[in-house]
Amino acid sequence: MLWRILSLKRKIIIIVVILVLLTIGSILIISNTDNTDNTDNKTNTMNISNVSTEKRQEMIAEIAELLLGDAPQYHTSDIDSGIPAVDGVTLYASGIELEVYVYNSEEEAEYDINCFDKTGYSYLNGTKVSAVSWIDKPHFYLYKNCMLIYIGKDEEILSYLANRLGNPIVG
Q: Is the pTM of this model over 0.90?
């Protein structure tokens, strides 16, 4: 009934507004599913496997020494998250808590870190997209064949990590 009462001019305006809203909605949907920013290597999944326990322990000790100097005091606990592609450990050292993932090569580590979007809250490996939840903002670093993730906003820790690892690649 209301449609019959409206003038032709108002009907055209309503139709144009609806078309604009539909177009904007389509653009937003496409932009949310378009992962062109980090998809260079993602169209084909890389076969990534875990490193030996010995190699992982050596790299963790090297990272602890890089962060803390000679004879660092630290401990670790295993992470079993399924994302990223390899098993990791949480490194606890001098008030810093880092997730450490050790890969067989720098290429594997770089590939896996690039599976995360710019924010670190989405992980795309091949055709599988996973949403990732963090307790705080994630910051991803690449060190040799390792991906390191600091979860937090402490500016002092971020500055400390930037001085030793460079700026975060993601986050």
A: no
